[in-house]
Amino acid sequence: MDIAQLGDRVLAGERRALARAITLVESSRADHRAQAAQLILDLSRKNDAQAIRIGLSGTPGVGKSTFIESFGMMLTAQGLRVAVLAVDPSSTRSGGSILGDKTRMERLSRDPNAFIRPSPSQSHLGGVARRTREAVALCEAAGFDVVLIETVGVGQSETVVAEMSDLFILLLAPAGGDELQGVKRGIMEMADIILVNKADGDLKSAAMRTCADYAGALRLLRKRPQDPEGYPRAMTVSALEENGLDKAWEDMQALVTWRREMGHFAGRRAEQAQYWFGEEVRHGLLAQLEREPLKGMMQALGARVAKGEVTPTIAADEIMALLGRS
Amino acid sequence: MDIAQLGDRVLAGERRALARAITLVESSRADHRAQAAQLILDLSRKNDAQAIRIGLSGTPGVGKSTFIESFGMMLTAQGLRVAVLAVDPSSTRSGGSILGDKTRMERLSRDPNAFIRPSPSQSHLGGVARRTREAVALCEAAGFDVVLIETVGVGQSETVVAEMSDLFILLLAPAGGDELQGVKRGIMEMADIILVNKADGDLKSAAMRTCADYAGALRLLRKRPQDPEGYPRAMTVSALEENGLDKAWEDMQALVTWRREMGHFAGRRAEQAQYWFGEEVRHGLLAQLEREPLKGMMQALGARVAKGEVTPTIAADEIMALLGRS
């Protein structure tokens, strides 16, 4: 594959080239990894376009697909180009990702100004996240104005999505009476904007109550230096009736504009690049455990540890000694 | 130091030897680490005594100190020997740990059948946890019947405490009306028994309501194979008035007895040993990043990554190549 040529075609915004480039960064083959690294490096030097990267988290049932479709269609109607990616470490098991079935977003997937890509199939969140981060950079180089990075609320996936996003949006459903709607405090603290969806029909008043609850909870959080007055904020939307989406987009743009002017936008991207550098190195170090000879050694020693024949510390010291750096 | 002799004195239950042995395992000096590993290995071979290791989590304000003192005094009054350890990664900053001030548990600290040890001073949870895990093994070898491992509810500390405990107890305070008492679902899923403290005076009815709420929430969780019928469970206690502590202890013993008979007790300890083996190895691999030459290389490259001069992936590849294992 001619990497320079592929890069030029991505920069020209060719969808097939973009899809092929993402397939390349998702590959775990060593030669593909090297080509992908070269491609990303080339593009980072040639590309000046900057998308707004929007992380979007929401558990199943909050209407995430409907929201992405309605929100995406609104953006493309304004002439903006929209890419949708996903971080879903469970996609391997389910045999397809949360975005694998494009019929979930039938209208958006047929829109020439939209590009939808399922989550890479990897069993570890770290692997999914590292590949998606590179796919985001590719979409940006391909001239997309908005890159939506979707995740389900499982474990640490919100954290890694926030580390590749300029904005982090939390999508919630109206809460029932005494229902346990446990949004973790850490997730709430990451959110720039909380959207309570399904503010339509019978659920409208429940959505407004839930929104008021979260607005109150957000006021209890300490103000962050990267936020202007009034952020983070909570608002209601109806993805079904396409209500409130324009207001949500206005608020996202206002926040981005303020952060750009204050230097927080570039500062956050610089911090994120350092974070991913550290992640890549940590992954590289730990990946040795998944390969021979370390893998077999760990299994053999692990069995002895479980039987109580050797203590965990002594066994670990043996491993480190074998690696020549105890 | 004569490690064999120290080990024999620990096995004989000498408190000063135990304190000295714990100081040894907490040391980060390489020669001390080697001696500590040898000591733990010796003791694991010579010791047959098995304590009940009880992990106890509770945020500040739930009355954890009062509970540990009352519960500990009840156990020592029954002739049992009780050790209290702590996992508190914040202890470095506060200049002393949550258990540093023994006046917090004045009666228990003067009890000859009790042994109280503050959290080791390390800035990383991983370091605190690995040392505390070894201290637990020392207390067990010293013939303590019950080892209480206390932690505050910060981040991942409950997880590591659960990985060194036979039972995991969550201590809660009565919840006020619309107060946000966010117990993370993951923490609740780890709990074997939830104790709602302060079921006394004005708070008694609130404690009973809170207990009923949590009992209801626990019923929604899937039954775990390691639990007999009726577990996990929630109950009220008053550490102040020393009410309900005997019932809590009975239930803990019943659970331990059942798990011993079903093989889950030994199975869990074997799994935990493998977990800590993996942790030690992962720590050993990542610890290289904190030492030269890697530390300086990471800083220099990190600065270039932040400026956008090199991509995170290429920079990480450079590090791995320098380590000779890309």
Characterize the structure shown.
2 copies of one chain form a homodimer. Chain A has 326 residues and is α/β, with parallel strands linked by helices. Chain A folds into 3 domains: 1-46, Up-down Bundle (Single alpha-helices involved in coiled-coils or other helix-helix interfaces); 49-262, P-loop containing nucleotide triphosphate hydrolases (Rossmann fold, 3-Layer(aba) Sandwich); 289-325, no CATH class. Helices cover 52% and strands 11% of the residues of chain A. The first copy, chain A, is built from 13 helices and 7 strands. Chain A has helices spanning 3-11, 15-26, 30-46, 64-77, 106-110, 125-141, 157-162, 185-190, 204-220, 245-262, 264-287, 294-306, 312-322, and strands spanning 52-57, 82-87, 114-116, 146-151, 167-172, 193-196, 233-236. A 7-stranded parallel beta sheet of chain A has the order 3-2-4-1-5-6-7, sandwiched between helices. In chain A, α9 links the parallel β6 (193-196) and β7. The radius of gyration of chain A is 22 Å and the shape is globular. Residues 92-101 of chain A have low confidence and may be disordered. At the A-B interface, α3, α11, α12 and α13 of A face α3, α11, α12 and α13 of B.
